[in-house]
Design goal:
single chain; 8 helices; 0% strand
Amino acid sequence: MKAADNILIQEALSGNQSAYTLLLDKYKYAVYAVALKIVKNKEDAEDVVMETFNKAFNHLSTYNNEYAFATWLFKIATNTAIDLLRKNNIQKLSIDDNELHLEEKYSDNNNAEFELIKKQDKNYVLKIIQQLENPYRDMIFYRYFDELSYGEIAEKTNTSLANVKIILHRAKKQLQKIILHSDFSNQ
């Protein structure tokens, strides 16, 4: 198995996209199991899988073939899952604080004012999404506005389920970069 993995890795490093796909197909369920054990949430585990393979494939040249590829990959998955948990805990605290603040701030006001604020926030999010290039923009709309499943998106776009997940993962990363570099005073 180690020899077969090393052959696939060498082919992938030489630019063979099929080798990447074979590695992904071979280990995706095992990586998913590792991720799910840590994050305990199917959607987060799927995100961890995509991030793990993204990191692994971007740093494939640093893999030491004296060790099993699976061991290296599972270590990346474990670290990625732990990072996601940390990030989610920080965001949950932040979101909870904001929700509490908004609830206190607008509890005495009428619902129309609160609805206006929510509409402005949605418009801001739409403006940010419009900055994405395709296929990222379309995938975000299909998933989060049309609320299509990954399978439905794959069918609609005539692409593989794995590609849908990869594109959505990359779209989320692009959105994160756009938001981090945007001027919040223009909301």
